[in-house]
Amino acid sequence: xxxxxxxxxxxxxxxxxxGVNLPTLYAYVGRKNIRSVKIEGSRKRRYxxxxxxxxxxGGRNGDKTPGKRGDSQSSLTLLTEDGLFYRGxxxxxxxxxxxxxxxxxxxxxxxxxxxxxxxxxxxxxxxLLELYxxxxxxxxxxxxxxxxxxxxxxxxxxxxxxxxxTGADVVRWFAALVVGxxxxxxxxxxxFIASARGADQGFADxxxxxxxxxxxxxxxxxxxxxxxxxxxGVTPYYATIVGLAASRGRRIAYGRNELVSxxxxxxxxxxxxxxxxxxxxxxxxxxxxxxxxxxxVVDPRAVSLKSTLDVMFADDPDYLRLxxxxxxxxxxxxxxxxxxxxxxxVGRKLNLEGQELALAAVGRLxxxxxxxxxxYNHQPIVRHHARYTGPLPD
Length: 394
Fold this sequence. Notes:
Helix 6 (100-108) runs parallel beside helix 19 (356-378) and helix 13 (236-246) crosses helix 19 (356-378). The strands form two sheets. The chain has a three-stranded antiparallel beta sheet. It has a three-stranded antiparallel beta sheet with strand order 4-5-6. It has two domains: 4-71, Multidrug-efflux Transporter Regulator, Chain: A, Domain 2; 114-381, no CATH class. The chain is mainly alpha-helical. 55% of the residues lie in helices and 5% in strands. The protein has helices at 11-18, 22-31, 49-57, 59-62, 91-97, 100-108, 125-131, 137-151, 160-179, 189-196, 201-214, 221-230, 236-246, 257-269, 274-282, 300-312, 317-333, 339-349, 356-378; strands at 8-9, 36-38, 45-48, 77-80, 83-86, 89-90.
C-alpha cells in the first residue's frame, strides 16, 4: 500500500506536470475541478494527483468537468490504485476499528440511525415466507419489502435522517431473511448473523469485516440503477428492490454468483483442486472469480478479506484446496482472485450454499441507501437524452 502522501502533489509538481505556471494552476482549481487540501501550519495546498493526471492525459476523457450531462458526482466512495476510501477514510482502518453500524452511520452521516426500535410487521409474514421458502433471499426481499413499507409510514420520510432510519430497518430485515429468521433483530448485525447460523465469536468478527468491505464500490451497475430510481423519489424499500433486481444481471459480478459458487463447490470436492480450474480454462479461457477489476492490479477488499481468511482458516481443508486452485488460476490468467470468490467461501462456511453472496448484500444495501439518499437529497433531477442513431425521417 502506497503512502497516502503519494496521492497528492505539491503546487510546483502539479504545475510542472501540466506545463503551466502557478497562477494558471490556481485558475485550473475551480475551472477544471482540481481538488486540493490545505497543508497544516502553512498557506500552501496539496493537489490530488489523480486530477492532475486526468488533465495531463487530456483529450476526450481527460478534461471532463463534473456536473455535465452523463457525469455523476458523489462524496461517498473513492477508488484509487492505492486503496478504497469511504468518505475519505481508508477501509483497512475501518475494518480494524469499527462496527458495521458505525460505518453505516458515518456513510449516511446520521448518528444513531440504528436505534432500538424495529419496523412494524405486516400481517401474514409467516405465511408469505413459507410460500416463498423455495426462493432466493433476494426474491423474498423483493416480495416482502413493499408490504413492510405499507405498515411503516416513516418510510416516506425521504430526508437524510428519514432515509437513514428506514435504511436501518431495511438492512435489518434483509439480514433476517439471509439467516432464515422471521423477523429483524436489534443486535449488531455481525453478532445476529453469526448467532443465527450457529457460528462462534471469531466467525462473527469475520462477518463484521466482510460486511464493511462489501458496503460500496462506487458506481457499479446496480448502484447506478439505485441512484436512477432514487432521483424519482422512491422510498428506501423500493430503492433497494431496484438494486436487488439489477444485481441479478448475469453481465455483472453478483449476477455471476452461480458460476462462482459452482466452481467453489467443485474445487472443495475434487481430488485435485486444480482440475476444475484447468477444465474451465480449457473450455474458453474464462475462469469464474478471476475476471478483471477496476483497480490497477488487485482489489483491496480481496486483499483485506484474504488476510483474515489466511489466519482463521490456516488448517481448514476446504480453504487449503481453494488456495491451491487460486494459485493455478492466477498463473493461467495473470489476474488475482475476485472479492466475490472469497465472499462465496465465507458464505459456504456458514452453510449458505447457493446464497453465499446474499451475506455480502447485507453490507451492499447500506451503500445503496447512502447513494439513494445522496441522489435524492443533494442532486438535481435531470432528464437524460439519448443520442439518436436510427434512420432520419424523409
